[in-house]
Amino acid sequence: MAKTKQRFIRLLSGVSLVLGVVFALVLVPSTARAATTAYTTASPDGSLSTYSNISQALSVAKQTGRPIAIDPGHSGWDPGATANGMKESDLTWKIAQACKDYLESKGVTVYLTRGQYEYVSVYDRVERAVENSCCAIVSIHINAGGGRGAEVESTNSSSYNQDLYYAGQSLSALVLSGLKSSGLSIHGAGTITRNWDTSFYDDGSVADYYGITRYARKAGILGVIIEHGFIDGTSDAAKLSNDSYLTSFGRADGAAIYDQFYGSDTWWSVSGINVSTAEAYVGETVTYSPKVMGVGEDLTYNYVWAKPDWSSWGSTVKDTGSMTSSASGTFTPTEPGTYWLFIDVCSNGTSKITRMVTVNVKSGYSYRGVKVTTDTPVAGAAVTFSADVAGSTSGLTYNYVWSYEGSWAEGEWGSTVLSTGSDTAEATGSFTPAKAGAYTLYVDVVSADGTRETRSATVEVAETAQPTLILGDPQAEKSQLVSDLKAGLKTRNAEFPSSVYAAYGASTVEEFVDRLWDAAVAEGVRPEVVYAQAMVETGYLKFGGDVKIEQCNFCGLGATGSGNSGADFSSYGSDAVYIGFLAQAQHLRAYAGEEPLSSTIYDPRYGKWLLGRSETVEGLSGTWAADPAYATKIKSILNNL
Questions:
Q1: Which range is most confident: 168-172, 276-280, 390-394?
Q2: Directed axis angle between helix 576-591 and helix 527-538, to 10°?
Q3: 320 burial via Cβ count (<10 Å: 0-12, 13-18, 19+)
Q4: Measuring CA to CA, which residue among 552, 582, 590, 549 is closest to residue 569?
Q5: What element of type H or E holds 287?
Q6: Which pLDDT band, with edges at 50, 70 and 90, does 352 fall under?
Q7: C-alpha distances in angstroms, 371 versus 331, 365, 374, 384?
Q8: Which residues contact 145 (CB under 8 A, 6 or more apart)?
Q9: Contact 458, 440 (CB under 8 A)
Q10: Is the full-model pTM beyond 0.70?
Q11: CA end-to-end span of the chain, whole Å?
Q12: Mind giving me the DSSP string for 188-256?
């Protein structure tokens, strides 16, 4: 494995990527920052969002929290070590409670891995920590076997998720210092690591012996075991039988944990990799992204894929010569086999954390289901559907079948074969429902050797099209708006105008959507409606008409033609993007018949004469804009989200 790692480093050095040492999870904020620092955190839905303001990033980060798992060792039928009339499971519970109380007093969310008398396996303790999005698991124990003092069992120096080794060394030093001040001596070297020489991590490096450290490391989080003295040692036992000492030990643990994980606003780590599929097919694009915890500064990413022997590999750095700011990468395998996917995440171009995941790639194809590509089926309008096939589709043919209310009576079903007498090579089928109701859609996928597979989906067809309301709760995800804007810019060979909007509060696509979303929600307008209208009005931020890009006027407010550029919100500085969208939302709210909710009206065109012009997007044609297709254009974008 050492040779493999060295080879990878040499390959990366060929593109002159200089990275700092991977060091600890306690990250010190950089003193040499870019003019505008980008702060990245995970939103509640797991997607990454970037902000120019640390307070905004912290506000979002608090929604997902950064819990710590405190694991009181043993319990249930397993009391742990016993001596001098004491049981380890009782002592660990008291220490854990004191640690929990200390951290909670500092505003930290604490998760205990077991109840007071509950038996939980080591594996399940770690699983509970992971399921509760904990940034680490600290296991509380008492030693035995003849000895004296405290020690910490931490992660070994293997290359797999190696930043956790340095993090463990850092936390161990903090813990031992605190316990020494609380009256415990240090046993031996203080910090110990132990290898399981017959077990290995996915990259081939030797695994940790202890289950807490090993399972946590596999999950991408730190796991350590703190031994609080020896239950069978005379001097330690005297302290362990005293609740005041147990409280002191727990508080010392808590203080060390706080300094390690919560002492800096810009603490961050990566717990793993989100991957679109762990079992792909040749030709199927696999998307992968980091699971970022905390708040990182100016994060950049290197997406790497490789065969385990590095006979075939690629990366962002190899392809472009530099890291990327994109929070996701893609990989399209051209041959079957096992692949490693890595993501390097760097903060301020120095500190680096690397995570990996294994993907198995097969030949052929996988038929995963039926996709209905018509969002709101209505009677009298065509409904399109297709087979969701991953991998190679060469030589496949299809039979598209529809059935009304499960009936196979004449006139209530149809198919490609019924209509034409044979299957088709067309990758999409369609039918036009004559009446409202539930329809079952089937697609037969036929391989070159004649093997036929069938999947189905059910759609509800409405009598008439449902109107698209302007007001209401969001019916799309923020990440969908981000993806659509990025795709729209790419289709138009354009870049997000960060050089313009950075000064107005949106240096990235994610920040731009954040400002839009916040403004729309503030007025009770559906954010996706504001977004779709803005994209129609600006041509996906290309502008080109009377309204200039720097005006932050995204819907043409006051732009009445003949060179009249309309409202200009640039004077609001770093709030200009937000105010521009707030004015648009206020205008839309007025159209829908409601007065603005905000105490200040930023819409220069607002007046009671606007109230009630249209409650729906459909009604914007001929009212907001003379273009009869105006609403159709907006709905087209909405339907693609």
A1: 168-172
A2: 110
A3: exposed
A4: 552
A5: strand 286-294
A6: very high
A7: 23, 16, 9, 9
A8: 230, 232
A9: yes
A10: no
A11: 44
A12: EEEEE--EEEEEE-TTSPEEESSHHHHHHHHTTSEEEEEEEEETTSHHHHHHHT-HHHHHHHHHHHHHH
Can you give the three-state secondary structure of 135-197, one letter per residue?
CEEEEEEEECCCCCCEEEECCCCCCCCCHHHHHHHHHHHHHHHHHHHCCCCEEEEEEECCEEE
- Does residue 408 have a pLDDT over 90? yes
Cα–Cα distance, 197 to 78 (Å, whole number): 27
3 state SS of 347: strand
* 70 or 561, higher pLDDT: 70
> What type of residue is 625?
A
Distances in whole angstroms, Cα of residue 304 to Cα of each of 279, 290, 307: 17, 12, 10
pLDDT in tens, 170-201: 999 999 999 999 999 999 999 999 999 999 99
pLDDT tens sequence across 117-135: 999 999 999 999 999 999 9
Structure token pair of residue 509: 């696509």
Tokens of 271: 């717990």
Q: Assess contact for 231 and 84: CB atoms under 8 A.
A: yes
Q: What is the pLDDT of residues 258-271, one digit of tens each?
A: 999 999 999 999 99
Q: Which amino acid is at 400?
A: Y
Q: How far apart are CA 38 and CA 349, in angstroms?
A: 12
Token pair for 125: 């303790």
Measured CA to CA, the distance from residue 535 to residue 494 in angstroms comes to: 14
Cβ neighbours, 10 Å, residue 592: 23
